[in-house]
Design goal:
Blueprint (H helix, E strand, L loop, with lengths): L8 E4 L6 E4 L7 H6 L19 H23 L5 H8 L4 H17 L1 H11 L1 H20 L4 H14 L2 H13 L6 H26 L5 H20 L6 H17 L1 H5 L1 H5 L5 H13 L1 H8 L1 H28 L20 H29 L10 H21 L5 H29 L3 H43 L5 H15 L5
Antiparallel strand pairs: 1-2
Helix pairs in contact: 2-8, 2-9, 2-10, 4-7, 4-20, 5-6, 5-20, 6-7, 6-8, 6-10, 8-9, 8-20, 9-17, 9-19, 15-16, 15-20, 16-19, 16-20, 17-19, 18-19, 18-20, 19-20
Subcellular location: Cell membrane
Pfam family, one: MFS_1
GO molecular function, one term: transmembrane transporter activity
Length: 510
């Protein structure tokens, strides 16, 4: 046996199997006790370490998480083309009430991670994924069977809460599977989901609604979600290293002591005197972690606010596209597309895909180059591409707004949207990967804190987005948004220079 627990455990054999008792000198926390096991000494080269898994095994887990992150984000906006039919069936005439079906889903995406991110750091990623996606699937069935707008809005909110795990935990799972030097392509692939989903959702839904009832939008999402959930139970494995280490520790105890080792697992990890009070403190500390990051760590607050702005920009554009391409209201110009109006979202989708490809390779080369030049790994290297993103973003906004204002060929605003999408994606990706690197092993909680801010923006901004475009017109509304991004252009460089000192001045110990 490879355990070196003689200082913390003693085993007394007897005819009925013996007992395992903690030593008074044993450490007080589970992490410290696990570290006494000799398998920790070889963890970096152990086959249990996800960094040492075969690429095929890591890729299967990563691709499944990327798909589920995409699915949750897609469902956030999938109701948009069906909304007129839903409102007509339920007798709703106020636009803002219909908008709540999307806004509250997005709010749920921000609220859920505050619970599920800490749970993933206690029980592992797979436990949370399987639990939440099972509930998410059931809620999609509930949406399809809704008999009132109030019921649909409430179910959409809870769908957002339970669908929040893949979009918020995915980056942490990618960091579990791949080292900092190799994770950029996978991280870019994952980030594509939360960006691409809201764009493709209306396109897919418009095709469904043109042939079926609006309820089939939710029946379709329920079927796809059920398939993804089944794969979670069949092919996925745990990726969070502290949980894997505890599992290996338990297996070694069981192998060495048999059933008594299994019964004594609770004593080996948390002694009898500690069990109640320490467990209570462990839960409260873990569950408060995202809130503490959001209120005490300036770097997390600044980057979370930055992320909220660019994510809110995406949802503002999503509210203006139906006005421009399907049914302009008031004095607003419209191209008056009908069944193909969903194609207007392709500009954003193409922009996200192009930016994902560029950052997957460009960020890796830049990061490895800076590591080689400076001789150390630093999360701040992830922030430099944000400068390019913040320059591209206002250019795309101006191109979109003024080409629509001047009634140019319909493809010109779509091209402008592609540039907007590129700027948003590069910024989104840089912030997410920075948070993973800077706050590991609590990266899930750090992303949860940032997710709350961005989802609040995604929830609130669409509520007045239509009114802004109606009041100012496409050109001036886009100009206001573009001017708001200009002061943010130097922020990535400022953070690159001072973020390290902020991290050292305000360290986070979990």
């Amino acid at each position: 046996m490879s355990l070196t627990h003689s200082e913390s455990l003693s085993l007394s054999e007897s005819d009925n199997g013996g007992t395992l008792t903690p030593c008074p000198n044993s450490p007080q926390g589970p992490d410290e006790r696990i570290k006494e096991s000799s398998f920790m000494d070889t963890w970096d080269t152990d086959g249990q370490n996800p960094y040492n898994w075969p690429l095929r095994k890591s890729a299967v887990n990563a691709i499944l998480v990327c798909f589920l992150g995409f699915l949750s984000s897609l469902v956030s906006s999938i109701i948009v083309p069906a909304l007129p039919n839903v409102m007509q069936e339920f007798g709703i005439t106020i636009d803002e009430v219909g908008t709540l079906t999307t806004s509250l889903f997005v709010l749920g995406l921000g609220v859920g991670p505050f619970l599920f991110a800490p749970l993933s750091e206690l029980y592992g990623r797979m436990f949370v994924y399987r639990l939440t996606m099972s509930a998410f699937t059931v809620l999609q069935i509930g949406c399809a069977l809704s008999n009132s707008m109030a019921t649909l809005i409430i179910l959409r909110f809870f769908s957002g809460i339970f669908g929040s795990a893949p979009p918020s935990l995915g980056q942490a799972t990618i960091s579990d599977l791949f080292s900092p030097a190799t994770r950029a392509p996978w991280s870019a692939l994952y980030s594509l989901g939360p960006m691409l989903g809201p764009c493709l959702g209306p396109l897919i839904a418009s095709l469904i609604v043109s042939a079926k009832s609006w309820r089939w939008v939710f029946w379709t999402s329920a079927c796809v979600s059920a398939g993804g959930t089944a794969l979670l139970f069949i092919v996925s494995v745990e990726t969070y290293k502290p949980v894997i280490q505890r599992q290996v520790m338990k297996q070694e105890l069981e192998k060495a002591y048999g059933k008594i080792g299994k019964r004594a697992w609770g004593f080996a990890i948390v002694g009898p005197d500690e069990k109640g009070q320490a467990a209570k403190g462990l839960y409260s500390k873990a569950l408060s972690r995202p809130f503490r990051l959001l209120t005490t760590n300036p770097t997390c607050v600044v980057l979370g606010t930055f992320l909220a702005y660019v994510y809110g920009m995406l949802y503002l554009l999503l509210t203006s596209l139906p006005l421009l391409y399907r049914n302009g209201q008031g004095r607003l110009f419209s191209y008056n597309f009908s069944t193909i109006s969903g194609l207007c979202y392709l500009g954003l989708a193409i922009g996200f895909i192009v930016a994902s490809t560029m950052t997957a390779y460009g960020s890796t080369r830049l990061y490895n180059h800076l590591v080689k030049v400076n001789g150390e790994h630093r999360p701040e290297y992830r922030l430099l591409p944000m400068t390019a993103g913040m320059i591209i973003l206002p250019i795309g906004l101006l191109m979109y707004g003024w080409s629509a204002h001047q009634h140019n060929f319909f493809m010109v605003p779509i091209i402008g949207n592609a540039f907007v999408a590129m700027g948003i994606f590069v910024t989104f990706q840089s912030i997410q990967v920075y948070l993973v690197d800077a706050f590991s092993p609590y990266s899930a909680s750090a992303i949860a804190a940032a997710t709350l801010l961005r989802c609040c923006a995604g929830c609130g901004l669409p509520l007045f987005g239509k009114q802004m475009f109606k009041a100012l017109g496409y050109g001036w509304a886009a100009t206001v948004l573009a001017l708001a991004t200009v002061p943010a252009i130097p922020i990535p460089l400022i953070l690159y220079k001072y973020s390290r000192s902020l991290r050292e001045r305000f360290p986070f110990h979990g």
